[in-house]
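Thread: quick sanity check before group meeting

JM: Hey all, I'm pulling together slides for Thursday and realized we never actually wrote out the predicted structure for the chain we discussed last week. Dropping the sequence here so it's in one place. If anyone has concerns about the input, flag it before I start.
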Amino acid sequence: MTLEHLNTEIITCCLCPRLVTWREKVAQEKRCAYRDWEYWGKPVPGFGDPRAGVMVVGLAPGAHGSNRTGRMFTGDASGDFLYPALYRAGFASQPDSRHRDDGLTLKNLYITAVCRCAPPGNKPLPDEMDNCQPYLEQEIELIHSKVIVALGRMAFERILRIHSAHAKATDDRPQTVISRPSSMVFAHGAVYQLVTGNWLLCSYHPSQQNTRTGRLTAEMFDAVWQCVHDLLPLI
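JM (edit): ok, ran it. Output follows.
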């Protein structure tokens, strides 16, 4: 399996009937502001540097964001907050992301998600995330990123599930917590090291629910990417 083959498999996936119906319905009906767009309307593959030292894991495509543009965090408010931060941190070639052919490139960073199809209400069901999990597992294996940034609690829990299964299969030692909090729980800015050697860094998701309320500020988000830079030399 190569990353190219994996992305082809992702794009053609129809494992979740509810999500297939929803993503295609949104793509046909469209939002008035995007009525001239030809919506992507398919599962959204990962995006970025295939040799990235950093992997960013979100939750799922937005109905009128990635489901419209076909690229992760592109064309919606979450991306409008994420990509400027990545640009300031030196991971993105430009501070905005409008469509998948806008020239944006990522350096040493790859963006993916727990669920590849836009879910109703931005809430994928557990079995839908289970169906998508093998894709994330294969990306982790193919890209070998040493720092994983979980955007939100659900991404954090899914990454832990994957690495816990890997650790159980290869080593019975418990996962090692490197920094506070003392137990492996989601908290913005928390940093953990897994038995696989990967660093896992937590961040609030850059959704409008967090950014408009001030739960996640630009300064808080910039601190996450500075932490990523601090971790990379430790690998």
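AS: nice. The domain at 3-234 is CATH 3.40.470.10 (Uracil-DNA Glycosylase, subunit E). The CA atoms of residues 56 and 111 lie 5 Å apart.
JM: adding both to the slides.
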